[in-house]
């Protein structure tokens, strides 16, 4: 099969919108431009590359039948289609490189059913909205990005990787963290395919390049009564070792272990009373029932608990919104020249490579860690804040890490394989060849496809 | 302080019982002999050593006040006191070496309160009885021995180590798996001491040598809808590798991963239809919501699911009662000459030492593994079945393991430090010196104390 390039430049968009009948469409250029963007500007590289990209028409279907209708219209007219959830991705995943239709799925947001440990949802359901329905039954989504309040489940699966909860359940890619998908194809006659079991990996984290997800079956975790705690330490490595030990403490139920070297805590305006100058801070979400043993562990490491909020107390800022990429957001609010890295350190309870990197880069790369579970082991992921100078220096920093065994998921590219994956996923590529023969879906994002069509 | 030896041989037991007023006592020798024993006979060594040991009087208090009264009488008369729960220990922990009072706590069995993730219980509460109260609220005890239906929580804490659930929450000794204890002392004026936080370790797993536990605050885990599954494999090492991978699969919620080399499955009479000849078997308890991804993992390892029971289906044998030391029980029912080992293998996802041991001993040491979490890592514990020949050969087998880095918790001794601990616990010893100055509690079980009194 020879993938074809789309030829949509001559499209009459008003006629196209009319063709879609009752389906909601948006043609207002300001709105369309807004709905063509995400948080790509966290990266100075992507900012330059993607600033002028925009779609032509936003379409907002309410049902799978409407999605099928849009798919049919796009195929018939050979029009590119880029799916959009809340548009909170960091790598320009949702930005259309070749214009065309932005398929906004936020109106397809039903929670269809909840069983013990499982839920069936539509892709546009916001993560926090899912929890609002499942929590009273004792369940919650297993992991969430810090954009939890706005992000959609479809966008999280198609464009995210993990987050708050990953210290218990690993990452989205791990077997068991996604049960089933319904996907609308862009074949000559678009149809719905159901994927279950390992087959979901064909579409999981594919940036919407090979199918429109219209329904998801996701596993749920037990909803513990979560408490939020801030612990501070004189030095960063002690804070990190505390994080590593807490993650490995089988008797203490943690959901978030987020470590911040000074001066990162100084960027968290709303938390200042709990963040003494010069101290490294650890932001935690743990089961309220585990606060007592947590206190003993803090004592063992010589830390200080500076803030504690019980599960019933909803006053104040949600601590999760200072972690994961919200850390970057707060830092950039203070200093917009900052950018970031995404690093997975190898499993090592002694954290030797982390320590070396910390000392090597000093103030140029400020350490921000999120602990997570990788194949059963507790490992720190770095979302370090980088004082950006030039693209060349950024590459140098990345290479320095990679040469020493730290894995970098480059957040400065919008191409799937150049980010976290590193190599072409044959399964995803083959699935694209089947369901998107004309290469209309989010064109320019899957390297394997582009190379095949060269 | 010089510990004293008790001198109770001249006690008039009828008068002693009368002194206790309304508190229930048992003097019938057959009953007393029965209530002086546990499952020590799993070990041919302990069987010889402990067969003739018996208490003089069983006392069964209903309240902490009654416990204090018994403590007072024992101290006044310098009478040894051995606490007893259900008497299901395997090492003769509950067998009085110097006679005296058997303090049976099974009548103190209230569940005092349940909060999300925590419960407060009396020591004589049976583990299954606690779950019956907490489960409807979404919670359950985190880990349980396979004697779950009969064993008491006091006996589990004082004499056990872990079990079904340890693959999630680690062992009882891990920080966070025991929150608080109330303990009655055997001082001149017995009193109640409350221990919280790390201080509980002074009494945790001390075989009732340094205080009578009268109340416990224990953490609870989330009650998933547990399903039971049997998977069989052509060869034992594939079964073991499957177990290791399942334990490390962060997206699949497991509660029990129990691996049995052939011919062990042949000892499980009630499960024969699901256990084909010559196959190694893996007995599993996993969240019902995870059966689908589990099926994919089984496929990857070339296993066969031969039985599956949903959470709502209570027909048939509870699978847990073929695991942990119930494996030994079933094997000994068929061949009473069998005994067992308790081995903790070092953390190694490749299972190299396990493989070496498996091939080295062949049929003399049959492999039975229980996977558990140790400091965050998934590790197999061996409860190998040993074809017993002589005590010398048993020692040789143990030394062969230890010399190669496998840790043996010797189940052929009733002395605390000679079993799993290996060294005197200074904290427990100091606590004993304080609360049991006359050395009346379960005498002969704590080596540190005996050496101090030589
Ligand atoms: C401050 C901040 C913090 C963040 N923290 C995290 C974090 O902790 N962890 C994390 O993983 N990410 C994080 N992100 C990235 C992002 O917020 C999440 O991945 C989020 O889940 C994306 O959801 P969305 O609805 O915004 O998706 P979008 O940005 O709208 O889409 C993401 C990708 O998925 C595709 N897509 C969306 N819906 C569908 C569908 N139904 N079918 C097929 N393809 C689809 C889009 O085309 C796009 O390629 C963060 C971002 C920011 C700005
Ligand atoms: C078939 C079989 C399977 C088993 N499987 C496991 C297993 O998976 N994991 C495991 O850990 N164990 C296991 N065991 C051992 C034992 O069943 C458990 O440890 C059980 O929890 C002990 O509880 P019990 O009430 O029977 O205690 P008992 O045997 O009555 O007492 C155990 C010890 O605790 C002391 N004690 C009891 N109550 C108190 C108290 N209130 N205060 C102070 N001291 C006290 C006793 O003096 C004794 O030293 C198994 C045993 C058998 C026979």
TrEMBL record, chains A, B:
InterPro entries: FAD-bd_PCMH (IPR016166), FAD-bd_PCMH-like_sf (IPR036318), FAD-bd_PCMH_sub2 (IPR016169), Oxid_FAD_bind_N (IPR006094). Residues 50-223 form the FAD-binding PCMH-type domain. GO terms for molecular function: D-lactate dehydrogenase (cytochrome) activity; D-lactate dehydrogenase (NAD+) activity; FAD binding. PROSITE patterns: FAD_PCMH. Pfam families: FAD_binding_4. PANTHER family: D-2-HYDROXYGLUTARATE DEHYDROGENASE, D-LACTATE DEHYDROGENASE. This is FAD-binding oxidoreductase. It comes from Vasconcelosia minhoensis LEGE 07310. GO terms for biological process: lactate catabolic process.
